[in-house]
Amino acid sequence: MSIVKMKRLRLIGMQDQRPAMLRLLQHLGCVEIDEPGDRSGDPDWAALTRPDTGALNRARDARTSVENALKALKKYGPKQKGGLLTPRPVITEAELFDDGAYQAGLADAGRLVELERQISALYAEQNKLRTQKLALAPWLALDIPLETASTAEVAVHFGTVAAAVDLDAMEGSLSAVTDLYQLMRAGEDRELKYLVFLCHRSVEEECQSVLKEYGFSRAALRGWTGTAAENDKQLDEQMAAAAQKLEDVIAQVGAFAGKKGALEQCLDRADQEIAREEARCRLLDSSTAFFLEGWVPAPEEQALLEQLSKFDCCWETADPAPEDYPVVPVKLKNNRFTEPLTTITEMYSLPAYDGVDPNGLMAPFYIFFFGFMFADLGYGLILAGACLFLHLKVRPKGGFGQLVRLMIMCGVSSAVIGLLTGGFFSDFLVQFTGMLGLSQPAIPFLSVPEGSGVAAPLLNVMEDPMTVLVFALAVGLVQIVVGMAVKFWMLCRRGQVVDAVLDIGTWWVIFVGIGLFALGVGNVSGYPVVLILGCVMLLGQARNGKGLGKVTAVIGAVYNGVTGYFGDILSYSRLMVMMLAGSVIGQVFNILGAMPGGGLPPAIGIPIFFVIFIVGHAFNIGLNVIGTYVHTSRLQYLEFFKQFYEEGGRPWRPLNIATKFVDIKEEQ
Amino acid sequence: MTFGEFLINNAGPFFGFLGAALAAGLACVGSAKGTGIAGEAGAGLLAEDPSQFSKCMILQVIPGTQGLYGLVIGFLALMKMGLFDGTVANLSIANGLLILGACLPMALGGLLSGIAQGRVAAASVNIVAKNPNDWSKGMVLCIIVEFYAILSLLISFLMIMFGF
Questions:
Q1: Fold of the domain spanning A148-220
Q2: What pLDDT score was predicted for residue A83?
Q3: Burial profile B54-65: b = 16 or more Cβ within 10 angstroms, e = fewer
Q4: ipTM of this predicted complex?
């Protein structure tokens, strides 16, 4: 519920103990190692060097290899069942850091990467063969070897002419020149006609000029031996062999399917290696010792120092100076109730180190607002149930895990508020019993027939939206006043009591004054004194201005206050709007479902009703969950945070064990 | 019967139907344009990276809600006019005009917000393309536009339900 105090840790240790020490720090997960401060001007520090990055690069290469292996397995291996709902395996830390398993995993990854390379090579080979086969296709009808060469007496030319050329005309032209030639037609395709032309050397030049006239161009068939048909047969054999080999290699990849889990664990391990090596690269080295600078949360300092005393090292810890606050990392201290709100806070921005942790302040409002907008017993139970299932079954981590846990609370809140405001799949009970021609059941809050005497909904947004609107604005006023109180407290904590009273107290007096004025109480001889007192206090805004600036400061404060506070409070009308929109759309689906069933026997009418009911409400739930989440968050960010929040904190990122595919068993 | 006579005899239902038609029709046009713009952008990305289909589809359906809101208002208007219990012929001219007026916010709000939201959704497809993990922020930007469609729905709803 607050921001954890951080301490600057400076440590000098021996290099031969460094690997063990970094492993210990990673195990403890309570130190963020950051870049050492700039001491370039200090001759004492000039001799220190940065550690080499060889090990880091090797760790990154290993990770890339495992990642590629997993991609190859996904692409070429058999389809794996499961997916999002498969829980992660739980292993001990020793299992994660088992070097034998790691090396075996890396070796498997190496083999998979090699197999993938072979697959790519085989695909390329198949392409090449296919291209060659295509190039040979037009010559297949030819029964002379493709390497047939010219002799001293006879010139031989393989070549092509355009498909439009009339070969008979061409032969006619050639005959007009000489008889000592032979034109063999090998084949044709859409663009070209393929020919072999033989002639006696004595008439070669005349023939050439005729051929040129018809656009004869030589074909490059170098490299082939034997007839086209023989070559084609060989290519077929080679292609069959390549296809067979490809099948074999893909089968070999498939044999790794059972190792997917081991490879994922290997990837997690590689990430830990990278984290530790990255931390190591932020140290400074002398020949035998190293220097480490980092941040440790004050509550964990004692435990850390106890562990460090096992090593030959010296250290100091210090509280950060106020001018260092912008670089101090921020860690929020939360309990189980407020921790899920961190995802909402982080989406905006973490608080500054000397600011206020908003999670605890926001939690009751967030959960209530969500419940109020989403208000429906059925919807709330579905949301809470689905998120609870996800939470127990998949145990999602990080921001998504926090969101899931937050939605469990929001779902319960929606269900409770839905019950009190009479929403169960909107007006399902009324419409459904109406369709079947039954009398409306008497259920407190949810279904209240006239004159039944059971408790009516506390708020009924369909019948009496005005009351709900006023209630929404009142809740908004409460949240804004809470935000202002936090600001008041922050100012007082920094000794700015006068600012607190004049900037914030003034508006409270005005709010109370307006309230009393509206109620007509507290007037002294007809004047609303509290309101007047508040307006007089507004003059205090002039305290920092000079000359005419005093006037503009007061006018500015009045303008900003009126547009700001009253605009903010009006913004809370969305609480009622979203509540109403959800109910109305749900009701329309109920009516649509009940309409065809009204005139039909129940055996047909009820299934029709439930088809429309399920599709419609599923749509409405999806739409409303997203909309409600956005608008609840917006009320925190724009209306609530505006009053007091100081953002800009840098998240605390300790050297720890952060895994994606496996969970680490907590050691006692 | 001339057109003039028809109008004199059926003016109430005529205006009421006109309102319901505008609310449902224009809001659906807005949604169709909005989902169309977003769909085009999504298809562009999917040509490069088919694995982002689900994200693109969610962004595309977001501007589809205005059509639904229009349908809700049109439906409520028809219900209020008595179409479903057969009393629509008795609707007075004044009440018909009230229905027409009440439907206008949804008609205009749905039409224009659907198109505007479609453009935000199309731009958000860029987020999916460049930073798939941050796509939910694009969704948040889309939902901000949604609010004005909901406000249109609200005011039309209040006018229809409590107008007469």
A1: Alpha-Beta Plaits (3.30.70)
A2: 64
A3: ebbebbbbbbbb
A4: 0.73
